[in-house]
Design brief:
Strand 2 and strand 3 form a beta hairpin. This protein folds into 2 domains: 33 residues; 59 residues. Helix content is 47%, strand content 20%. The protein is built from 3 helices and 4 strands. With 94 residues, it is of the alpha+beta class. The strands form 2 sheets. The chain has a two-stranded antiparallel ribbon. It starts with a helix and ends in a 9-residue tail after the last strand.
């Protein structure tokens, strides 16, 4: 009777374990898909410099772009030292 009540209230342990396992599998798949080759990460840095430089003057040598991950999430982390803001954006090169 107690097990039936738990199932009705959504507290079925097997369902909770199933959901936890599903979330972990999804995280593993995301991490596998987000493995970035060094040359692609470098291309990303170049693109970021190009776009951000239209709006502000940045220290390109101080730019640091990394992929950070922990057990719960995956993040693109960009540390971009800003020297000054531009009064008017540069013309787009596209």
């Amino acid at each position: 009777m107690f097990e039936l009540l738990q199932r009705l209230l959504g507290k079925d342990e097997s369902a909770q374990s199933k959901n936890v396992a599903k979330e972990r599998l999804q995280l593993v798949l995301v991490k596998d898909r987000c493995t970035i080759a060094p040359h692609i990460l470098e291309s990303l840095k170049v693109d970021l410099i190009e776009v951000i430089s239209n709006y502000m003057e940045i220290d390109e040598k101080g730019l640091d772009v990394t992929i950070s991950d922990d057990d719960q999430s995956l993040a693109l982390v960009a540390n971009i030292p800003i020297l000054r803001m531009r009064r008017t954006p540069k013309k787009a090169s596209r």
